[in-house]
């Protein structure tokens, strides 16, 4: 795709979807746009934009595609195991030192997509009954994804495949596929619309889970976001990133690597 065409598409996408593609990796985005046009049988971008400006459903499909909201429960299970065995006990120990009567963890799932990530957190914390005091805030800027998350599903067999038989029994509604998350898990999560590029971040957090989101942004935007995550954590708080992500030179921004995929604010 020509750079000029890409510039025009960015302007249109900003206007129609309020999505600023300047923050997303150029080459990857251009490739994705090219293949989307072919897949949707439109000859030109002008033709496609006229079509979607009259069709809210198609507009929402296009947004879903651009923001890539693939997710699943216990994605990269061994990382969640480390969270459960090492990170959560450390955070609760510190919370207990700060407030012995009511040790509470404040957790943010940023870029939560259709919900499996914050629901995984709620399930994991429910598995360990000593950790019942926690607040889980889950945010995304994609309204469609959030609506599915708040509806507790439906989720495919593939999306729930990392749940054990007893987790399925305990934490999903009977029946399925498609699957729905049980009410007792859903009520532990508060969902909210939030744009990482323009909205203020929540503060004083013990744990930020931001996985497979920052990966699509330019280096410069990533750097700004990692600093904002650091600011949003309390001292000793942990940032949990995706399996293929690393924070470059963490010590320069006041973070310390703490096992694969975890960074502690120091
Ligand atoms: C691939 S999903 C990751 C979902 C989940 N964190 C996981 O790892 O399974 C990426 C999510 O990032 C969200 N996202 C992309 N840009 C965003 C932004 N600027 N603000 C908030 N969310 C954003 C998308 O809407 C999408 O739901």
Give structural notes.
It is built from ten helices and seven strands. With 266 residues, it is α/β, with parallel strands linked by helices. The chain has two domains: 3-67, no CATH class; 77-265, Rossmann fold. The protein has a seven-stranded mixed beta sheet with strand order 3-2-1-4-5-7-6. The N and C termini lie far apart (44 Å). The relative contact order is 0.13. The model has no long low-confidence stretch (mean pLDDT 94). The structure holds S-adenosylmethionine.
Which key phrases capture this entry?
globular; 2 domains; binds S-adenosylmethionine; alpha/beta; 7 strands; 10 helices
The termini sit apart by 44 Å
Ligand roster: S-adenosylmethionine
CATH architecture field of the largest domain: 3-Layer(aba) Sandwich
Largest sheet: 7 strands, mixed
Quick summary:
It contains ten helices and seven strands. The protein has 266 residues and is an alpha/beta fold.
Topology at a glance:
Layout (H helix, E strand, L loop, with lengths): L2 H15 L8 H14 L5 H9 L2 H12 L9 H22 L6 E6 L5 H12 L6 E7 L2 H8 L14 H7 L11 H4 L2 E5 L11 E5 L9 H14 E8 L14 E3 L4 E4 L1
Parallel strand pairs: 1-2, 1-4, 2-3, 4-5
Antiparallel strand pairs: 5-7, 6-7
Bound molecules: S-adenosylmethionine.
S-adenosylmethionine (SAM) binds next to loops.
């Amino acid at each position: 795709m020509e750079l000029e065409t890409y510039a025009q598409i960015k302007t249109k996408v900003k206007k129609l979807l309020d999505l600023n593609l300047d923050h997303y990796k150029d080459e990857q985005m251009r490739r994705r746009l090219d293949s989307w046009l072919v897949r949707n049988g439109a000859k030109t971008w002008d033709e496609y934009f006229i079509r979607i400006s009259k069709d809210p459903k198609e507009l929402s499909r296009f947004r879903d595609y651009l923001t890539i909201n693939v997710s699943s429960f216990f994605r990269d299970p061994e990382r969640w195991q480390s969270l459960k065995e090492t990170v959560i006990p450390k955070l609760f120990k510190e919370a207990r030192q700060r407030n012995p009567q009511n040790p509470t963890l404040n957790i943010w799932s940023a870029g939560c997509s259709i919900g499996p990530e914050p629901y995984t957190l709620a399930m994991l914390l429910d598995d360990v009954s000593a950790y019942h005091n926690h607040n889980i805030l889950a945010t995304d800027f994609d309204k469609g994804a959030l609506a599915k998350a708040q509806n507790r599903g439906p989720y495919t067999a593939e999306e729930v495949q990392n749940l054990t038989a007893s987790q399925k029994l305990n934490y999903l509604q009977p029946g399925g596929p498609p699957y729905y998350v049980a009410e007792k898990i859903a009520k532990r999560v508060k969902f909210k619309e939030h744009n990482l590029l323009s909205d203020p971040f929540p503060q004083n957090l013990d744990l930020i889970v931001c996985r497979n989101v920052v990966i699509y942004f330019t280096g410069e935007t990533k750097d700004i976001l990692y600093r904002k995550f650091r600011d949003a954590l309390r001292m000793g708080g942990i940032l949990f990133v995706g399996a293929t992500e690393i924070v470059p030179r963490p010590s320069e921004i006041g973070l310390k690597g703490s096992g694969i995929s975890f960074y502690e604010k120091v």
